[in-house]
Amino acid sequence: MKTFYITTPIYYINGKPSIGHAYTAIAADILARYHRMLGEEVMFQTGTDENSQKNVEAAKERDVKEYLDEMAALWERTFDSLGLTHNRFIRTTEVAHYNSVEKFWKTVESKGDIYLGSYEGLYCQGCEAFVNESDLVDDQCPHHKKVPKTIKENNYFFRLTKYRDDLLAYIDEHPDFIQPEARRNEVLSYVRNFMTDISISRETMNWGIPVPGDEKHRVYVWFDALINYLSGVGYVDDTTAFEKWWPANLHLVGKDIIKFHCALWPAMLMSAGLPLPKNVFAHGFFTIDGQKMSKSLGNTVDPVEMAEKYGNDVLRYFLFREIPFGGDGDFSEARLVGRYNTDLANELGNLVNRVLTMTEKYTNGTVPEVADGFLAGAWPSYHLALEENRLSDALDIVWGLIRQANQFIDQQQPWQLAKLEEKKMLNDTLYVLLETLRHIAWMLYPFMPTTAEKMFVQLGLETPKEFSQSFESAWVWGELKSGHKLAKGEPLFPRKE
Ligand code: ME8
Fold first, then answer.
1. Which pLDDT score, from 0 to 100, does residue 467 have?
2. Residue 466, pLDDT above cutoff 70
C-alpha cells in the first residue's frame, strides 16, 4: 500500500493555539484526509516544541514539566475539537525524542560535523535564533518587536557550510523539493550568500536536552525540534516503522521557518546519511483585519471560538477559500460571514436543498435512470491541484461544479418540464443533478468532512468511514443507482445575519 507521511511544525506552547497555528494543522488535515481517500496509508504528525526557553519563561514560578503537560494537553484537545485526524501527537519532552536527538547528535559528531567554538552575537528569544544587525528595524527584531540579547558563549557548532554545494545541487536537481517557487528562490539566495556554520548548543540554559558527552550544554532548540520528524516514526526504537515512513512526503510549514526546514534540516540529514523529505511547502502568513497577528503582540484569534460559533467545516472552508494557499492573506470574521451566506448558504446549501426537494416532488424521492452528466475534467484538475498543494484551487474547482449545477437547474427548469410532462428530460435532469451532488460530496470530503457526510446521508449513501482503493470506482459517473431512495434532511447552511 502506498504511504503518505505529512507533518506540521511542532508548536511552542507558551500560549494557546492561535488561528495561525490551526491554519497549518488544518491544511495538513485536509491533505491527510485526501490521501486516505486515495486509499493510501497516512501518517499525519503534529505536536509541541517543548525545549524552548520561551516555554520555560511562560511557566513562570510553576514547575516547568507540569506547565508543559498542561499546555500540551490543551493543544491536543484543541486539535481534537477542530476535528483533526493526526495519527501522532509528538512532544519533544518524550523519552523517545530525547533518545533520537542523542543518536542523531552522535551520528553527526562521528562524521566530524560538530566542533567547539565561541560565539558572540545577537539572539532573539522570539525567533529562537541568532539574528544579524541588518535584520533589525530600530534595533528590534521586526517579527517580535523586541531588542535581541547579546550573547557570548562557547558553543558547539554544526558544519552547515560544508553542505552548501550539496544543498545547492540538491535543490537544483529537485525542483519540487521547496514550494512555492518564491520560497525556493529565497532559500537558494540564503544558501548561496548568507549561510554560515550554526551554533547548536547553549551553555547557559538549564532546560532542554543535554549535549551527549558534555551535559553542561543543552542542544539548541531548533536542532532538537527538527529531529521530531524522525523520532515520531521510530528513528530510535522501531526500524520497521522508520523504514516504512521516512522520508516524509511533505513538511508543511509557514514561510517564517523556511530556512530551518530547507537549509539546516536537509544539511543535518545529509550529515546523518538519511534521505531528505520529498517536499517542503511553505504557506504564507495572514493578518487579522489587516493587522499582523502574533502571540507576542497579543492580537490573536482563537480558532476554537471561531469553530464553536460557525462550525469546523465553515472555518476550514473560509480559511482555504479566502486565503490562496502559499500566498499571504487576511482573516476577517465579517468576510467569513459573507462567504458563509454567499458560497455556503446560497450556492452549496441551496443546490442540495433544491435538488432533493425536486426529487421528492417529481420522483417520490427515488433516483431516476442513469443519464450522462457534465463533470468533464473536474476530477483530473482536482487531483492535480491537491497533488501540487493548491488547496484553494481545488475548492475553486468544486465551486465551479456547484455553480454549473445551479445554472443547469435554471436552464432546464424542471418545474416546467413537469408541467409539460417531459418525463424523460425531467428524470435525466434530476439524475444528473443528484449524481453531481454525490461527486461534489466526495470532493468536499477532505475540506468539509461533516458537510460531505451529511450530503452522503441525504443521498441515502453510506458515509466513507474507512477508505480503500475501491473508492476510486466511487468517483466514476453513474455510481448512484436508479431506484435508490433518498433521505432529504435539514438545510445544510441556514442563512446567518
Ligand atoms: O516556529 N499565519 O513554532 P511556532 C499563518 N516551534 N501561519 C501562522 C501564523 C499566521 N499568522 N502564525 C503562526 C515554531 N503560524 C517552531 C517550529 S518545527 C520543527 C519547529 C503557523 O509556535 C505557521 O505554520 O512559532 C508557522 O510556521 C508556525 O505557526 C510557527 O509556530
1. 63
2. no
